[in-house]
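Minutes, project huddle
Topic: does the predicted pose make sense with adenosine-5'-diphosphate bound?
PN asked that the exact inputs be recorded in the minutes so nobody has to dig through chat later. Recorded below.
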Amino acid sequence: MPRVIAMMNQKGGVGKTTSAVNLAAALAATGKRVCLIDLDPQAHMSLHVGLDPDELDCTVYDLFTDTARSAEEAVVRVDERLDAIVSETDLAAAESELAEQDDRQHILSRAFAPIADRYDVVMIDCPPSLGVLTINALAMADEVIVPMQAHFLALQGVGKLLETVGLVCQSVNPQLEVGGIILCMHERNTNLAREVVDDLEGFFTGARDSDAPWRNCRVLQPPIRRNIKLAEAPSFGQTIFQYEPTSHGAADYAALAQCVLDGWNPPTDVEVPAPVVETPEAPQPADASGTQDAP
Ligand code: ADP
Ligand code: MG
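Predicted holo structure (tokens), as shared on screen:
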């Protein structure tokens, strides 16, 4: 079964879509089979990978509202090892259309299940809200990754987000973990950015021994520098690796993918086998009793 990542932050403009697309592309470049799912009615992720929802017959909206439609119909090839399921503006209506439906948190994972085993990684680009669409992403995910900018008040937003993840853990998905923070449009040399990062690291370190879903959360490395090529690539419908593979942006997302993968396969300490001590065969006790077993 694939590793399912929800790229989530209820704040807009923090780098969710940029990170979903380019981290997915970077993981695909390492040999992983990846599927991107756009859950934002703005469909920026879809456009970023060069897919126009108006030209496609089956979108994620259809999967939410029509059980006769299948993920098989919705999935589109983007690049080698990289597929996508697009969104469309109608998806905005799904929030209210689904309000009364039983078990509405699990619609996406149920719809995706028949094709799940084709992938190693599924990356879901969440909308900037905490409604039923985001809950569907969290119900299906193994892991939440939070893109953010190291700004004043950013930590408050992260607090709210963690609270939501905590509630989802209690109700629909007890296995869910917050795996990492991506620092986007990062200005490494400002005092503010440094303070925010220190606060974040302090907060997560303090949670290590708790049972909170973010106890294993890491600030992922490297931070993604501000890079104009990352902002230009979406208008060409290309990932950064297609648009400008030698840019800082491409280098940062490639290194980030490695960091994410390392977190999944932590280096195990090489076990030194215990020396085999040759114990001579224990001498047979002399038959001191002189008695024999009764026949
Ligand atoms: P979200 O999905 O959270 O709303 P986006 O990924 O769409 O955020 O990013 C918001 C804007 O910032 C977009 O115009 C995007 O191109 C730009 N952007 C994101 N990351 C970077 C970066 N590292 N450098 C420069 N521009 C960026
Ligand atoms: Mg977005």
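Observations noted during the meeting:
- The radius of gyration is 25 Å.
- The longest helix spans residues 154-171.
No decisions taken; revisit at the next huddle.
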